[in-house]
TrEMBL record:
PANTHER family: ASPARTATE-SEMIALDEHYDE DEHYDROGENASE, DEHYDROGENASE, PUTATIVE-RELATED. NADP(+) binds at T11, G12, A13, V14, R39, S40, S158, G159, Q317. It catalyses: L-aspartate 4-semialdehyde + phosphate + NADP(+) = 4-phospho-L-aspartate + NADPH + H(+). Pathway: Amino-acid biosynthesis; L-methionine biosynthesis via de novo pathway; L-homoserine from L-aspartate: step 2/3; Amino-acid biosynthesis; L-threonine biosynthesis; L-threonine from L-aspartate: step 2/5; Amino-acid biosynthesis; L-lysine biosynthesis via DAP pathway; (S)-tetrahydrodipicolinate from L-aspartate: step 2/4. SUPFAM superfamilies: Glyceraldehyde-3-phosphate dehydrogenase-like, C-terminal domain (SSF55347), NAD(P)-binding Rossmann-fold domains (SSF51735). Phosphate binds at R99. Homodimer. This is Aspartate-semialdehyde dehydrogenase. The lineage of its organism: Bacteria, Pseudomonadati, Pseudomonadota, Alphaproteobacteria, Hyphomicrobiales. The gene is asd.
Length: 340
């Protein structure tokens, strides 16, 4: 029978997109339970032909639930995911709480869906910047192993939640009206500005948490601890799509043309590489799309060996970066028939 699905963090920017993905992808479910912190309950959210009331998240919220999609804080996931598992249900967790846990599969379905079967109750959804950076690279890695990867990210406000998206709008408005704006969500002035990702900097390496997630999660998702990765993660004044500049070095020489051909059939990818018209991946085109847009595919001129290629991608942070990827994992759990 179809599963009873719960969404934890249902009123957040990602939670709302999870509901939308379940609806638009006609996910087969017998019921949908929407859970949030007490301050967000009482609201009714539309799903298919009805309104569902958001209930307060408690330890009793998971009776009869088969799949629970979590998109709240790591603290909430650590507290409630074990309770869900004890109820015999499966958790797809969008927080970073369990991503690096050996018993927890970390899954991008286009890359390592096979990992799902080994779950012990929890499956982790990867960091959005990691998903958008590496999903297009998987077909390359399969043909000519990537030995080194350098990522620079241009990350949207949505990664810091709905409040940060509101902060972008409000600070931009204030800027245009010549008014002072006092930040309440992000650490620095956001309008017409960019800054190092708003996660803490490691005092030894100088890397922020977001960069370490991209580095460590790439290794785990590719199943290749030896791949050498570096990342620079930056928050930019864009609403909901992350962009990334990626340079990778392969084991053997690889032509940009070969990479471009691979992108034409890469799952979850749309090639946008129009040199003549200078038309390449942009957040405005990536927003609201399932696919990650990939372009600017060119030989890396700093590597005379011909083993390195540089490209630029843009993907919707709330969809493929979070909600869509989580729902795609859930689809693998219930093996929905291929979408019509
Ligand atoms: C960000 N990766 O973009 C995070 C989203 N949780 O800030």
């Amino acid at each position: 029978s179809s599963p009873l699905v719960a969404i934890v963090g249902a009123t957040g920017a990602v939670g709302v997109e999870m509901i939308r993905c379940l609806e638009e992808r006609n996910f087969p479910l017998s019921g949908l339970r929407l859970l949030a912190s007490p301050r967000s309950t009482g609201r009714k959210l539309k799903f298919r032909d009805r309104e569902i009331e958001v209930e307060p998240l408690t330890e009793q919220s998971f009776k009869g639930v088969d799949i629970a999609l979590f998109s709240a804080s790591g603290t909430v996931s650590r507290q409630f995911a074990p309770i869900v598992v004890k109820e015999g249900a499966i958790v797809v967790d969008n927080s970073s709480a369990f991503r690096m846990d050996a018993d927890t599969p970390l899954v991008v379905p286009e890359i390592n869906a096979g990992e799902i079967a080994r779950h012990k109750g929890i499956i982790a959804n990867p960091n959005c910047a990691a998903i958008i950076s590496i999903t297009p690279l998987w077909p390359v890695h399969q043909r000519n192993p990537i030995k080194r990867l350098i990522v620079a990210t241009y990350q949207a406000a949505s990664g810091a939640g709905a409040a940060a998206m509101e902060e972008l709008r409000a600070s931009t408005e204030a800027y245009l009206q010549g008014r002072e704006y006092k930040n309440t969500v992000l650490p620095h002035p956001y309008a017409f500005n960019l800054f190092s990702h708003n996660t803490k900097i490691d005092p030894v390496t100088g890397y922020n948490d977001e960069e370490m997630k991209v580095i460590e999660e790439t290794k785990k998702i590719f199943g290749d601890p030896d791949i050498r990765v570096s990342a620079t993660c930056v928050r930019v004044p864009v609403l909901r799509a992350h962009s990334v500049a990626v340079t990778f070095e392969c084991e053997r020489p690889i032509a940009a043309a070969e990479v471009r051909e691979l992108m034409k059939t890469a799952p979850g990818v749309k090639l946008v590489d129009d040199w003549a018209n200078n038309y390449f991946p942009m957040p405005k085109d990536a927003s609201g799309q399932d696919d990650i847009l990939v372009g600017r595919i060119r030989q890396d001129l700093s590597d005379p060996s011909g083993k390195s290629v540089t490209l630029f991608s843009a993907g919707d942070q709330l969809l493929k970066g979070a909600a869509l990827n989580a729902v795609q994992i859930a689809e693998k759990l219930v093996k929905v028939p291929a979408l019509a």
